[in-house]
C-alpha cells in the first residue's frame, strides 16, 4: 500500500475503482462482448487473429503449409458480406499493417503463456503464505518450498485432462464462491454497513484528487482485482460460452463484489492491516477452514491459465508458428480439451523457478500486473478490429468502446509499467524467449518454402522423369508428402533420380492447416487426378481445433475419397467407365501389395556466402527442427510404413 495513513474515504475510493474495473472489464468487455468474438468455439488472441484472417485476405505472411484462404465454403464466407470496410481494405493492401497485426497477436499469445507461468506461482504462493498468520516463525523459505510442492502435484495431474481435473475442482470453486461472500457480508454488517455507497463513481474522482500521483501508483496493485478475466476468453476451447457466462455472472462476479466489500469494510476499521487484507478479515474460528479453501481455490485458479496455455500452444503448433510438440486430445467430445507433456513440464519448471528465485510475492505481483494489462490491451485492440471489419458496429459505439477500455487499461498500464525494474521485466523476458523461438521457426519454415517454390517440379518435369526407361513403376501404394499444392517438392526429383522407381499408385499428399478452428469432415480430404496413370493429389485440410491423429486410418480415408472421386467421374463420363474400373482395380491391388509413406527430411546447407543473420537463424532453426517431433506421426502412420528421404537445401 503506497498510502501511509489511509483514511475511510481512501478505502471507499479504492473499492469504487475495483468495483467499476471488475464490472466494466470483467462483465461488459469479456463476459458480454469478447466471448461473442469466438472463432467457432475457440477463444484467445490467436482466435481473434484467425477470425480476422478469415474475413480479410491477410494470409500471405503465414508459412507455407498454412492458408487463410481455400475453397472451403466456410472459408469464403466473407464473399457474402457487403463491401469491405476502408480499414479492412487498408490492412489487406498494407504489408506493414498485416505484420503489425501479426506481431500484436503473437505478443498477446506470448503474454498469455507468461500468464500461465505467473498465475500458478503467485496464486499458490499467496494462499500458502496464510500459514504464517498463526505461525509467524514459519519461514518464507518453507512457504516457498510448500508452494513448489503443491504446484508440482498440480502439473502432475494435468495428463488426466481438463474434464477430469475440473470435475475434481468444481466442489472447491463452489465452496469458495459461497463462503467468501458470506464472510464478506459478515464484515460489512459488523464493520461498515454503508460500504456500498462506494459504488458511486464520485469516490473515484475524490480519491485521485486527494492522492494524486500516489493514488495513480496504487493502480499497479489494484489491477490484480481483475485477474482471470483474460482466462475467461482463452478457455473457450475447454468450456462453452454459455457455461462461462452463467458461472461468471451468476456466481464469480457477485462473489468478488461482496468479498471485496467485506475486505474494504474490515480495513476501514483496521486501516493498518492492508498488508494481509484477506486472511485478517476472516473470523478467527474460520481461519483454518478458509485457509484450506483458499489454498484449494488458488490451485483451481491456476488450472484455468494452464489449460489456456495448452490451447494457445496447440493453436501455434498447428498453424506452424511453433516447433512441433506432442498434443494429446483428452476428450473425445470436445476437441478443444488438449494436453501437451512438453508444455506441461516446461511450465512446471518455470513456475517452481519463479517461486524459488522471486520468493518475495511483490516482484511476482508486479510481473503479473504487466502480463494482465498487456493481454487486456491487445484483446481490446483486436476486438476493435473485429467490431469494425466483421461485425460492422456503428462508429459511435466502436468509439465509445475504445474510449472506455483503452482509457481504463491505458491508465492501468501507465502505472504498472513503473514497476518494470521491480519484477515487471519477467514477462518481457519470457515473451522475448518465446518470440525468438517462434520467429526462428517461422523464418526457417519460410526459407524452406521459398526454396521449394523456386525449385519445385511441375507436371512436365515429372512426365519427363517418369519417361526415363530406367525408372520403374513398382507395386504398391505410396503417399508422398509435399508442402506444395501447385507442383511437387524438389525431394521428389531427388527420390526418383536415386531410387530409379516410383510406386504404381502414388498419392502426393499435402497437409494444409487453415486459419479456422474446424474443417467439415466432407471437406477434409480433397483428391484429384494429376494427368498421369496412377498418380493422384490429395489435400488434407485441418483447422487448429481439429485432431490430427486419425489413429492409423489415414489410408482408408484417402482411399475412400479416391474411390468416390473415380465413381463420380464415371457417372459424369459414361464412355470412360472401363478405364475407371481399371483404376479401381489398380487402386485395390496397390493397397494390398504394400503401403508406404514417404516424406522429405531436408536440411539447410549453409554456404560461406550466407550473411551472419542467415547463419545464426538457420542454425537455430535446424537445432529446433532436429529436436522436434515429426509431422507424420500425428497422422497415426505405423512406424514400419514410414520412409524419410534426406536432402540438402542450399541456403
UniProtKB/TrEMBL annotation:
It is a multi-pass membrane protein. The keyword Secreted does not apply. Coiled coil: none annotated. Residues 5-461 form the K+ potassium transporter integral membrane domain. The chain crosses the membrane at residues 12-32, 100-122, 142-160, 167-189, 215-234, 246-266, 286-306, 367-390, 397-418, 424-443. The keyword Transmembrane helix applies. Its main location: membrane. InterPro entries: K+_transporter (IPR003855), K_trans_C (IPR053952), K_trans_N (IPR053951). GO terms for molecular function: potassium ion transmembrane transporter activity. Keywords: Ion transport, Membrane, Potassium, Potassium transport, Transmembrane, Transmembrane helix, Transport. Belongs to the HAK/KUP transporter (TC 2.A.72.3) family. Potassium transporter. This is Potassium transporter. It comes from Artemisia annua (Sweet wormwood). The lineage of its organism: Eukaryota, Viridiplantae, Streptophyta, Embryophyta, Tracheophyta.
Amino acid at each position: 500500500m503506497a498510502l501511509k495513513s489511509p483514511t475511510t474515504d481512501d478505502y471507499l475510493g479504492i473499492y469504487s475503482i475495483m468495483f467499476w474495473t471488475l464490472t466494466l472489464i470483467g462483465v461488459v468487455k469479456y463476459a458480454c462482448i469478447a466471448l461473442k468474438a469466438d472463432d467457432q468455439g475457440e477463444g484467445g488472441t490467436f482466435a481473434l487473429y484467425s477470425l480476422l484472417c478469415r474475413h480479410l485476405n491477410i494470409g500471405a505472411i503465414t508459412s507455407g503449409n498454412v492458408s487463410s484462404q481455400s475453397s472451403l465454403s466456410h472459408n469464403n464466407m466473407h464473399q457474402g458480406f457487403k463491401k469491405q470496410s476502408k480499414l479492412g481494405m487498408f490492412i489487406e493492401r498494407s504489408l506493414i499493417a498485416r505484420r503489425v497485426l501479426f506481431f500484436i497477436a503473437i505478443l498477446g499469445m506470448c503474454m498469455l503463456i507468461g500468464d500461465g507461468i505467473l498465475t500458478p506461482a503467485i496464486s499458490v504462493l499467496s494462499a500458502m503464505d496464510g500459514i504464517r498468520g498463526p505461525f509467524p516463525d514459519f519461514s518464507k523459505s518453507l512457504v516457498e518450498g510448500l508452494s513448489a510442492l503443491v504446484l508440482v502435484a498440480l502439473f502432475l495431474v494435468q495428463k488426466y485432462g481438463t474434464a477430469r481435473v475440473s470435475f475434481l475442482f468444481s466442489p472447491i470453486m463452489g465452496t469458495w464462491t459461497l463462503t467468501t461472500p458470506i464472510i464478506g457480508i459478515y464484515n460489512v454488517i459488523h464493520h461498515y454497513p454503508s460500504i456500498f455507497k462506494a459504488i458511486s463513481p464520485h469516490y473515484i474522482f475524490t480519491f485521485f484528487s486527494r492522492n494524486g500521483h500516489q493514488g495513480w501508483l496504487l493502480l499497479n496493485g489494484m489491477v490484480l482485482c481483475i485477474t482471470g478475466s483474460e482466462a475467461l476468453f482463452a478457455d473457450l476451447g475447454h468450456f462453452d460460452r454459455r457455461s462461462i457466462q452463467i458461472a461468471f455472472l451468476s456466481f464469480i462476479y457477485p462473489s468478488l463484489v461482496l468479498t471485496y466489500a467485506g475486505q474494504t469494510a474490515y480495513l476501514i476499521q483496521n486501516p493498518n492491516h492492508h498488508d494481509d487484507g484477506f486472511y485478517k478479515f476472516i473470523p478467527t474460528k474460520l481461519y483454518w477452514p478458509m485457509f484450506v479453501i483458499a489454498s484449494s481455490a488458488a490451485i483451481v485458479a491456476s488450472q484455468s491459465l494452464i489449460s489456456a496455455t495448452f490451447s494457445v500452444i496447440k493453436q501455434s503448433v498447428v498453424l506452424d508458428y511453433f516447433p512441433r510438440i506432442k498434443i494429446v486430445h483428452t476428450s473425445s467430445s470436445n476437441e478443444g480439451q488438449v494436453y501437451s507433456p512438453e508444455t506441461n513440464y516446461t511450465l512446471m519448471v518455470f513456475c517452481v523457478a519463479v517461486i524459488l528465485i522471486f520468493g518475495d510475492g511483490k516482484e511476482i505481483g508486479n510481473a503479473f500486473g504487466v502480463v494482465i494489462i498487456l493481454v487486456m490491451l491487445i484483446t481490446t485492440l483486436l476486438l476493435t478490429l473485429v467490431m469494425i471489419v466483421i461485425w460492422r458496429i456503428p462508429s459511435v459505439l466502436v468509439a465509445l468502446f475504445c474510449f472506455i477500455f483503452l482509457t481504463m487499461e491505458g491508465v492501468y498500464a501507465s502505472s504498472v509499467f513503473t514497476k518494470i525494474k521491480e519484477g515487471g521485466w519477467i514477462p518481457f523476458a519470457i515473451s522475448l524467449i518465446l518470440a525468438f523461438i517462434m520467429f526462428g521457426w517461422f523464418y526457417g519454415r519460410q526459407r524452406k518454402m521459398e526454396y521449394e517454390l523456386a525449385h519445385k517440379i511441375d507436371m512436365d518435369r515429372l512426365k519427363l522423369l517418369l519417361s526415363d526407361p530406367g525408372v520403374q513403376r513398382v507395386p504398391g501404394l505410396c503417399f508422398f508428402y509435399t508442402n506444395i499444392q501447385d507442383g511437387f517438392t524438389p525431394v521428389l526429383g531427388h527420390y526418383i533420380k536415386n531410387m530409379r522407381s516410383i510406386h504404381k499408385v502414388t498419392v502426393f499428399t499435402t497437409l494444409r492447416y487453415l486459419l479456422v478452428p474446424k474443417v467439415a469432415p466432407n471437406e477434409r480430404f480433397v483428391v484429384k487426378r494429376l494427368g498421369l496413370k496412377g498418380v493422384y493429389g490429395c489435400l488434407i485440410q485441418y483447422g487448429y481445433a481439429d485432431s490430427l491423429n486419425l489413429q492409423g486410418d489415414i489410408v482408408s480415408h484417402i482411399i475412400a475419397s479416391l474411390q468416390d472421386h473415380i465413381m463420380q467421374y464415371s457417372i459424369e463420363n459414361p464412355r470412360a467407365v472401363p478405364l475407371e474400373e481399371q483404376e479401381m482395380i489398380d487402386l485395390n491391388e496397390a493397397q494390398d501389395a504394400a503401403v508406404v509413406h514417404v516424406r522429405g527430411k531436408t536440411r539447410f546447407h549453409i554456404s560461406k556466402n550466407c550473411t551472419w543473420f542467415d547463419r545464426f537463424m538457420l542454425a537455430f532453426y535446424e537445432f529446433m527442427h532436429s529436436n522436434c517431433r515429426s509431422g507424420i506421426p500425428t497422422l497415426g502412420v505405423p512406424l514400419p510404413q514410414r520412409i524419410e528421404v534426406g536432402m540438402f537445401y542450399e541456403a
